[in-house]
Design brief:
- The structure holds two protein chains of two kinds.
- Chain A is mostly helical.
- Helices cover 76% and strands 3% of the residues of chain A.
- Chain A has eleven helices and two strands; from the N terminus they run ααααββααααααα.
- Chain B is mainly alpha-helical.
- Chain B has a single domain, classed as ABC transporter involved in vitamin B12 uptake, BtuC (Orthogonal Bundle), CATH 1.10.3470.
- In chain B, 71% of the residues lie in helices and 2% in strands.
- In chain B, strands 1-2 form a two-stranded antiparallel ribbon.
- In chain B, helix 2 runs antiparallel to helix 12 and helix 3 packs parallel to helix 5.
- Classes of the chains: A mainly alpha, B mainly alpha.
- Chains A and B meet through helix 4, helix 9 and helix 11 of A and helix 5, helix 11 and helix 13 of B.
């Protein structure tokens, strides 16, 4: 394998990882603050992509504006879900599994009913490719990574520089302690689901414009999200970013080296090894 | 005073219904649904045994796949009899469970759940990848029916029709459920409960948590493997495809949890009710076609919200009601162990 192909694989991997990060961030935030494994998060991702489809393709709103609108609309959906479905269940893991699974069924069939099962396409984020040192990098993937990294950076600023962000970090580290300091856990969980849903929606829009849209795209995205947050450490934001990049690079790199089937297995095996030997992940604390 | 007598009567009625059902429905399609229900009850009850120690597994489908493939391939490639490969299917699942149990149980809660989820996915991919042995993504086809039992001079039992296979499945699943139930109601079951409620405390009084968890994981995987093998010989075609319609996909693992919670996780009979209800809903909501997952999801959420004990909780509700009517202390309520 020549150096160029090698480099190309790594760059593609970063691009792939960028879109995974957005779904992973939401999952890891929700998991660390509410202790919920949000099974419907993949469907939120799908919903965001279909939101863009609705605004952009069906109603002629410019693509980037449509992504913006879809992000807010999905956040509102997230808020409603949190208020009606998640908040009333206090801390029973099995009930959360059931309710979020029921929710993902409902969202899937709602989308099937309104947009039909057929595969849809979003317009490209930026058609064409860059040619750098004889490698071709697709421009839309580049844009996707820039957007993903930008949003991650904004989230980081929010968590480190604002009152609510600091409160969120505090309650993810020690829920009781945060409660004692007067941080309202309900506000925190509403905020975290809204932010997570918004990020997943953008992830869905980016993924949907690079690949395709179909009502069942959320399942695989959810699996990728789980994988990357385990690599990075459940509940850790820098972990999610690094985990996403590692996952993306692993996939495209092993995809070059091995048959594509095996390339799917290896990241999963890596994750299981992580879970067993380093369950707190790369950046986990406690 | 006559509790055990009433229980026995209920059990006999239940048994009679189970045996008469295929004669009543008289329809191959419904017998197909019944067989599926019976197989899933065993898988869910086994998964529930693991949950008794407080750990949740989202990997049931993976062990179903192991049992099904081991049994089917041995029968198809080596020509072994069903009666040998069925237990081998279970043992293979149990063996793999034994291999992964120690590292997996070093972590708890969400970590364990995610590990099992990913492990089941790995099984699917590996099965698809090893096409020389397993037939790859195309799957295995034309798995022979179970060999007939012949008692010379008396009769021959054949299992090539769905009707007869149903009774075979009922007997095997019945044995499995009986063993699981006896375990849960024995000292071991109490130990599981203590691990679930307070594992540190259990450890402090000398219970080897790891050993018990590994034991229940291996036993449960054995029975999940058996249900997988039963499915394989009934369906006669297997595939590791990852689409949600396939029995070996993540969906089934999650549905097993749903069956348990909807039925009532506190009771051994919860999975019976949950699996029956959830596998029948799609049949009765067939006219609704497009809206089916919508109905499914809504029922699920309503049950979790309004019947936290699961459907089996209705039983204790009625018992209280009956007790109040009699105005005596006769109706003791025990929602946890129905």
């Amino acid at each position: 394998m020549s150096g160029q192909v090698f480099l190309q694989g790594i760059i593609n991997g970063f691009c792939l990882g960028g879109t995974y990060i957005l779904i992973g961030l939401g999952l890891t935030l929700i998991l660390s603050i509410m202790s919920i494994l949000q099974f419907a998060h993949g469907e939120i991702y799908m919903l965001g992509a279909y939101g863009v489809y609705f605004f952009c393709v069906l109603n002629g709103v410019p693509l980037y504006l449509a992504i913006f609108i879809s992000m807010f609309a999905t956040s509102v959906v997230g808020l409603i879900i949190e208020r009606i479905l998640l908040r009333p269940l206090k801390g029973v893991f099995l009930s959360y599994v059931c309710v979020t699974t029921g929710l993902s069924l409902i969202l899937q069939s709602a989308v099937v009913l309104s947009f039909s099962k057929s595969v849809k396409q979003l317009p490209s984020l930026w058609p064409g490719t860059f040619d750098v040192f004889g490698m071709s990098i697709s421009r839309e993937r580049f844009v996707a990574v820039v957007i993903a990294m930008g949003l991650t950076f904004l989230l980081y600023l929010f968590l480190k520089r604002t009152r609510y962000g600091l409160a969120m970090v505090a309650s993810s580290q020690n829920r009781e302690g945060a409660l004692m300091q007067g941080i309202n856990p309900n506000v925190m969980s509403a905020l975290v689901v809204a932010i997570g849903s918004g990020l997943a929606a953008v992830g869905g829009a980016l993924g949907g414009s690079i690949f395709n849209l179909d009502p069942y795209m959320g399942g695989l995205a959810f699996l990728k999200g789980i994988t990357l947050i385990v690599i990075g450490g459940l509940g850790s934001l820098p972990g999610a970013v690094v985990g996403g990049l590692i996952l993306g690079v692993c996939e495209s790199f092993f995809g070059l080296l091995l048959e594509s089937q095996m390339a799917l297995i290896i990241p999963l095996l890596i994750v299981i090894a992580f879970l067993i030997f380093k369950p707190k992940g790369l950046f986990g604390h406690e | 005073m006559n509790r055990s007598w009433i229980k026995g009567l209920f059990f006999l009625i239940f048994l009679a219904i189970v045996c008469l059902l295929p004669i009543i429905v008289q329809n191959d399609y419904w017998i197909h649904v019944l067989i599926l229900i019976v197989v899933m009850i065993l898988a869910t009850a086994s998964m529930r045994a693991i949950n008794r120690t407080g750990e949740i597994t989202i990997g049931t489908a993976g062990f179903l796949l192991l049992g099904a493939y081991a049994a089917a391939l041995l029968t198809k490639k080596l020509g072994l009899s069903f009666w040998i490969t069925l237990p081998i299917g279970g043992l293979f699942a149990a063996f793999i469970a034994l291999l992964v149990a120690y590292p997996f149980f070093r972590v708890k809660g969400v970590y364990f759940a995610i590990s099992t989820l990913l492990l089941a996915t790995v099984f699917q991919y590996i099965t698809g990848y090893m096409y020389k042995i397993t037939g790859g993504w195309d799957g295995v086809r034309l798995i022979p029916s179970p060999n007939p039992i012949t008692i010379p001079g008396l009769f021959t039992l054949k299992f090539d029709s769905d009707f007869n296979y149903y009774y075979l499945a009922v007997v095997i699943v019945g044995i499995g459920l009986f063993i699981l139930r006896q375990m849960e109601h024995s000292r071991i079951g109490l130990v599981w409960g203590s691990i679930k409620e307070a594992d540190t405390l259990a450890q402090s009084i000398g219970i080897n948590i790891m050993a018990h968890k590994i034991f229940v994981f291996v036993v449960a995987s054995f029975f999940i493997g058996i249900s997988g093998a039963l499915y394989a010989f009934y369906q006669q075609a297997l595939s590791p495809a990852t689409n949600p319609g396939n029995i070996f996909s993540v969906t089934t693992s999650v549905y097993c949890i749903l069956y348990m919670v909807v039925g009532g996780e506190g009771s051994f009979y919860g999975p019976f009710i949950g699996a029956t209800l959830f596998l029948l809903i799609p049949e009765f909501s067939r006219p609704l076609h497009m809206y089916r997952p919508l109905v499914y999801g809504t029922i699920l959420i309503l049950i979790v919200f309004f019947m936290p004990q699961g459907l089996i909780g209705l039983g204790s509700y009625f018992r209280t009601w009956y007790g109040n009517i009699r105005g005596s202390s006769g109706g003791k309520v025990s929602p946890q162990h129905g």
